[in-house]
Specification:
single chain, 169 residues, mainly alpha, Four Helix Bundle (Hemerythrin (Met), subunit A), 7 helices
Length: 169
Amino acid sequence: MAISMYEASIPPIVRSLRNLIHILDRGAAHAETKKIDPTVLINSRLYPDMLPLSKQVQIASDITRRGIARLADSESPTFEDHETTFPELIDRLKQTISYLETITPEQIDHTETKKITLPIGKESMIFEGLPYLLYFILPNLYFHVTTTYNILRHSGVEIGKMDFLGKPE
């Protein structure tokens, strides 16, 4: 059985972003229960040279939104990186999901060999559609969701593997 580009992208991306919302909800609840200023968690890092939780969430949103837009020849909404609260980060993810849910299978199916040029600073990376999805978009998403999870877990938020994976559908 073949899997379409749509099925390989939109459902797992949306699921991961919804799970990330759940993880952020747990972080917000933890801060409230333990009387911790939420900005402490939002600005937390695993190591000084790593990006803070807020940036991890912003990148997860950007990578998926812009990546799917490139595959679909669609215009991605632009978000300012100004989120400083759990509700703002969650709203950004909900807006990302809303955009992704407008993409139809017809827009990205059969883009496996589509040429994707990704500007990175002064350079560009060039991909075909399938490797772009499998080796750039999805790994980046999982990296930033995992890092957000790890920041919160390291900060004492009681979350576990099933929070990351989500409930079976």
